């Protein structure tokens, strides 16, 4: 079972890397489009039209597609002033509880997003903007990002839970714990070394 979960996490990691690159490309493209629109308005008094609408879609989609990567890298913001002073076993239990809470919230959000998408499809809903974008298009990409997050969260939660039940607190921390200052410093040092090798 552990091997299956590890393979599942490996697949989720690869998918999340593709998703974050795609989401980042969407956000950068929308920033470029907004910049062009601003320049055209200032210099030629014309507008591309719809740049603000498209950038809103890109931001929502890009954010949803980044959730899985953020979860796997433990890059989400956590208030850990008390957490770092607790015994390791209590921290591990809190880490599992945090994953369960996050999963419950995202399950509800994804379910509601799926419902909104279904409603948009059934009514042929369009944006009330000059572009009149069929809403199923951005909403379906948004739902895909949320679904990828759930696809990533499930094996992560199960793997951390099995580690907790087996008394492997180091694995629970590695998978679900709050990042320490030492881990952040080590990552920054490794990144600096990698940049120097490229020069």
Could you explain the architecture of this structure?
With 199 residues, this protein is mainly alpha-helical. It has one domain. 79% of the residues lie in helices and 0% in strands. It is built from 6 helices and no strands. α1 packs antiparallel against α2 (51-72), α1 (2-44) packs antiparallel against α4 (136-165) and α4 packs antiparallel against α5 (169-176). The longest helix has 43 residues, at 2-44. The protein is globular.
Could you name the key traits of this structure?
199 residues, mainly alpha, 6 helices, 79% helix, globular
Question: Could you give the topology of this structure?
Answer:
Layout: H1 2-44, H2 51-72, H3 88-123, H4 136-165, H5 169-176, H6 181-198
Helix pairs in contact: 1-2, 1-4, 2-4, 3-4, 3-5, 4-5
Summed up:
The chain is mainly α and 199 residues long. 79% of the residues lie in helices and 0% in strands.
Q: Outline, from the CA principal axes?
A: globular
Average predicted confidence as pLDDT: 90
Number of strands: 0
Q: Which range best describes the helical content: under 10%, 10-25%, 25-40%, 40-55%, 55-70% or over 70%?
A: over 70%
Strand composition percent: under 5%
Sketch the topology as an H/E string, one letter per element.
HHHHHH
Task: Flag low-confidence runs.
Answer: none
What is the total domain count?
1
Taking all Cα atoms into account, the compactness measure Rg is: 21 Å
Q: What structural category do the secondary elements indicate?
A: mainly alpha
The biggest sheet, with number of strands, parallel, antiparallel or mixed sense and barrel status, is: none
- State the separation between the terminal residues, measured CA to CA: 44 Å
* Count of separate DSSP helical elements: 6
